């Protein structure tokens, strides 16, 4: 990370199809809406550059949606505008989320040449039956091909996403997914438990812990074995759901978890700067209309109180192996953190969920597993 420099989150909210478990701000790709985005993003980027100047971004993260659905030429053009307008710090991390089914050797070469240096492949599973159940428009063979193409295109920072706790998935199938991912020698693995959101088809159809979903004991057993496999392969857990080889931790996300600043570009994107956070209008047509009129396309903006900012540092920091920098908390609340949060710190250390090490509150392995409960103590 480059201290003091912001990141940029670019939201491209279009996908090949709407996955039945997804509750992100995303929708099915249409040529009409893609055209709205191609018109709107460069205009909004120009507004950001006029306001922020050459910020020298520490990271750029193309998320979605499925950013890799867009033509490589469009992404390359946008990256050129980012570099020319906001500027990039030396060694900036530039990530792009990708569906294996949307990639080709030529496209990956163009993306790498455009400055994308970190690729996050949404593998999700290596079981074709489970992939069909997830509504994924690719199979395991395509993920393997895409990983090989990415390496040959020059991507030295490759991440794979996996989801476990799937309908009909047993522990052995889930562990087989981890082993299959490791065969591709990724530098980073994100291992997410299936989330059932009530506004999704999966959320309406399934209930956690009830067949065909695995029960809590099976999930816990899998999680322990999966972490051991990842660590044996040299991928260290540095956040609740994220594992990386040393030096390959996602710098953009790390900055976010530490309360860093990041600008927002694209319908539905969120940003944060010095205690102010905001979200952009999710509707692409409304987004384009706003930027064409020279108006910031805000859905909302809010100023956080010092107490809210400090609480977020604890909530997010306790999800990471690095923990919470108490000096940073003190700089916000302007009082000793150990005094202001004495009850919470006492409870966390007493439960064995965290320990005080120097100027940091660091979660234990048990604390990482219970990060949500730990964070709630500061709400």
Describe the protein's architecture and organization.
- The chain is globular.
- Strand 4, helix 2 and strand 5 form a beta-alpha-beta unit.
- Strands 9-10-8-7-6-5-4-1-11 form a nine-stranded mixed β-sheet, with helices on both faces. The chain has a three-stranded antiparallel β-sheet with strand order 12-13-14, with no helix packed on it.
- Helix content is 42%, strand content 22%.
- It is built from 16 helices and 17 strands.
- Helix 2 runs parallel beside helix 3, helix 6 runs parallel beside helix 8 and helix 11 packs antiparallel against helix 12.
- The longest helix has 22 residues.
- The two termini are 28 Å apart.
- The protein is of the alpha/beta class and 379 residues long.
Architecture blueprint of SSEs:
Layout: E1 7-12, E2 14-15, E3 27-28, H1 31-52, E4 57-64, H2 72-85, E5 88-98, H3 105-113, E6 118-124, H4 128-133, H5 140-152, E7 158-164, H6 171-183, E8 188-193, H7 201-205, H8 216-232, E9 236-239, E10 242-244, H9 251-257, E11 262-265, E12 270-273, E13 276-280, H10 284-292, E14 298-303, H11 306-317, E15 324-325, H12 326-333, H13 337-340, H14 342-351, E16 354-357, E17 360-363, H15 365-369, H16 371-376
Parallel strand pairs: 1-4, 1-11, 2-3, 4-5, 5-6, 6-7, 7-8
Antiparallel strand pairs: 8-10, 9-10, 12-13, 13-14, 15-17, 16-17
Helix pairs in contact: 1-2, 1-10, 2-3, 6-8, 11-12
């Amino acid at each position: 990370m480059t201290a003091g420099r912001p990141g940029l989150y670019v939201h491209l909210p279009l996908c090949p199809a709407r996955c039945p478990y997804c509750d992100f701000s995303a929708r099915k790709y249409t040529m009409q809406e893609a055209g709205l985005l191609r018109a709107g993003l460069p205009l909004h980027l120009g507004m950001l550059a006029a306001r922020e100047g050459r910020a020298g971004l520490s990271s750029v993260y193309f998320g979605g949606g499925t950013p890799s659905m867009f033509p490589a030429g469009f992404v390359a053009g946008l990256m050129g505008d980012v570099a020319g307008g906001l500027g990039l710090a030396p060694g900036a991390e530039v990530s792009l989320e990708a569906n294996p089914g949307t990639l080709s050797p030529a496209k990956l070469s163009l993306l790498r040449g455009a400055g994308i240096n970190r690729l996050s492949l949404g593998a999700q599973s290596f079981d074709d039956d489970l992939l069909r159940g997830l509504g994924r428009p690719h199979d395991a063979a395509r993920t393997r091909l895409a990983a090989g193409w990415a390496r040959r295109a020059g991507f030295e920072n490759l991440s794979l996403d996996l989801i476990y706790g799937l309908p009909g998935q047993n522990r052995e199938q889930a562990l087989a997914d981890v082993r299959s991912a490791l065969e591709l020698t990724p530098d980073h693995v994100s291992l997410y438990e299936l989330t059932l959101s009530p506004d999704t088809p999966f959320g309406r159809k399934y209930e956690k812990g009830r067949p065909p979903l695995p029960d809590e004991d099976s999930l816990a057993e899998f999680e322990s074995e999966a972490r051991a496999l990842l660590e044996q392969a040299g991928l260290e857990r540095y956040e609740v759901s994220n594992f990386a080889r040393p030096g390959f931790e996602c710098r953009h996300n790390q900055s976010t978890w530490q309360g860093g600043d990041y600008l927002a570009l694209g319908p539905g994107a969120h940003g944060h700067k010095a205690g102010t956070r905001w979200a952009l209008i999710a509707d692409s047509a409304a987004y384009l209309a706003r930027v064409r009129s020279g108006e910031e396309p805000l859905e909302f903006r809010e100023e956080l109180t010092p107490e809210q900012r400090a609480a977020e540092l604890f909530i997010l920091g306790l999800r990471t192996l690095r923990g919470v920098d108490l000096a940073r908390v003190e700089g916000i609340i302007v009082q000793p953190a150990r005094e202001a949060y004495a009850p919470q710190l006492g409870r966390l250390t007493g439960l064995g969920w965290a320990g005080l090490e120097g100027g940091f509150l660091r979660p234990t392995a048990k604390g990482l597993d219970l990060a949500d409960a730990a964070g709630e103590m500061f709400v």
